[in-house]
UniProtKB/TrEMBL annotation:
The protein's name in its UniProt record: Uncharacterized protein
The entry's keywords: Membrane, Transmembrane, Transmembrane helix
Transmembrane segments: 33-54
Keyword Transmembrane: yes
Length: 60
């Protein structure tokens, strides 16, 4: 019983550490995506303005 408990607690600890690592990776990817969005927003606005001028309709 005690052996199973040890295995169980080790499993919980490893899964917690894994989720922490996943969170760090996710946060890093989100920061990179935000930085890319900062430069990509201008391109998106430009494309949106092109679409508006082509279709002649307002997005709003």
């Amino acid at each position: 019983m005690i052996m199973n408990l040890d295995i169980y607690t080790n499993y919980i600890h490893s899964s917690i550490n894994k989720s922490r690592q996943d969170y760090k990776v996710l946060r890093y990817e989100t920061e990179v995506a935000v930085i890319r969005m900062g430069s990509g927003t201008l391109v998106l606005i430009f494309i949106a303005m092109l679409l508006v001028s082509i279709t002649g309709t307002n997005i709003c």
